[in-house]
Specification:
The chain is an alpha/beta fold and 370 residues long. It is 39% helix and 13% strand. It contains 14 helices and 9 strands. A 9-stranded mixed beta sheet has the order 6-5-4-3-2-1-7-8-9.
Length: 370
């Protein structure tokens, strides 16, 4: 049986034009994906993906460093090998190298673009700097304005660290004001700039409180969607909030395939696109063990936790020596805070009513569930 999976590509490896102080990628030379690896990646991914839709995700490092001609070649190969399947393309960028040509290319080829921004200048610039240590906010905003100018569909990725975690509504309102309708908030762990767990919980709770009163159905935050999915018992759509992981693998510039982008280490390499089958890699004992270990190695305390239903142990990369997640206290604070709203929204869904109804009662209190 073929296993559905996601395969993220890093065509420029970890190469980047910035030097963000909290980045966990280590640059090693200037690696770029060549045409042989590119063709093998596209051909094999389409052929071995059992789903009718095949989602290509281009990331870095900084993916724009590969240049537009590389992605034009990728589109030609997708067309050549698509075999009737629906192809989509997503592209993650720091935004500083976006030009009119890039944005026309994205628009004309229906790319979804993710842009990394940590909030307004005073929250973005301290950590997101170029290789000369200079601030990047103005360049990112110029790129964002170009995306808007060319009507490119985009979302934002915000790293939540020790500085911006203190100003959740300032960050949220800034992103809304600048046109972001889909906002990913990624907690920073394992660096000196890491967010305090409880502060992260308060950050997400504050944003939820504003969202649930006025923004349901207009703005989207993946962690809110995942929590509601787990409340109603459907797949969360994110490996972080599922019982198991291992369905999201990554291909490096040289064709090496790893279990996960957070585990690009020799012991987690499952093969190479030039010499192996992606389905064989997904079925391999190494990859299956990797995915199952998310649940197998869970702390015993998690089994008795009242919010495990929502958190599912979060990402294994954030686990500590005792098996508990670094963010545990924050997630407990957050999920306990939003649980009454999730229960109300789940009841609305069960009765085929609009989720937006939650906004009516968020300030005044909920009626009895029926």
């Amino acid at each position: 049986m073929q296993i559905p999976f996601n395969l993220m590509a890093k065509p420029a490896g970890a190469t980047c034009n910035l030097q963000c102080s909290y980045c966990y990628y280590l640059e090693n030379g200037t690696p770029y994906m060549d045409d042989t690896v590119l063709e093998a990646y596209i051909r094999n991914y389409i052929r071995e993906q059992p789903s009718q839709q095949v989602d290509f995700v281009w990331q870095g490092g900084e993916a724009t460093l590969q240049g537009i001609p590389f992605y034009k070649k990728a589109l030609q190969l997708q067309k050549q090998y698509r075999n009737g399947k629906v192809i989509t393309n997503s592209f993650q960028t720091n935004g500083t190298l976006l030009t009119d040509d890039w944005c026309r290319f994205f628009r004309d080829n229906n790319f979804l673009v993710g842009i990394s921004i940590d909030g307004p200048a005073e929250l973005h610039d301290p950590y997101r700097v170029n290789k000369g240590g200079k601030a990047t906010f103005k360049q990112v905003m110029r790129g964002l304005q170009l995306l808007l100018k060319y009507r490119v569909e985009f979302n934002t990725l915000t790293v939540v660290h020790d500085l911006n975690a203190k100003k959740p509504l300032e960050v949220y309102r800034f992103l809304k004001r600048e046109g972001s309708e889909y906002m990913q908030f990624i907690p920073l762990v394992g660096k000196k700039e890491a967010v305090d767990p409880q502060e992260f919980g308060r950050f997400m709770s504050s944003i939820f409180d504003e969202w649930v009163k006025r923004d349901v159905g207009r703005y989207f935050v993946p962690v809110f969607d995942a929590a509601l999915a787990n409340e109603v018992g459907v797949p969360a759509g994110s490996c972080v909030f599922n019982d198991y992981c291992g369905q999201s693998i990554v291909i490096e510039h040289n064709g090496d395939v790893f279990a996960c982008d957070h585990f690009v280490e020799p012991q987690y390499k499952v093969g190479n696109i030039l010499t192996g089958s992606l389905q064989e890699m997904m079925h391999s004992e190494k990859q299956q063990t990797f995915g199952l270990n998310k649940l197998r190695l869970l702390s015993a305390a998690c089994g008795n936790c009242d919010v495990y239903k929502y958190c599912r142990g979060e990402c294994p990369k954030n686990r500590q020596s005792d098996g508990l997640n670094y963010l545990c206290k924050g997630y407990r604070l957050f999920f306990r805070h939003i649980r009454p709203y999730l229960q109300f929204m789940a009841n609305e869904l069960a009765h085929h009513r609009s989720l937006a109804n939650v906004m009516r009662y968020a300030s005044t209190g909920f009626p009895p569930l029926n």
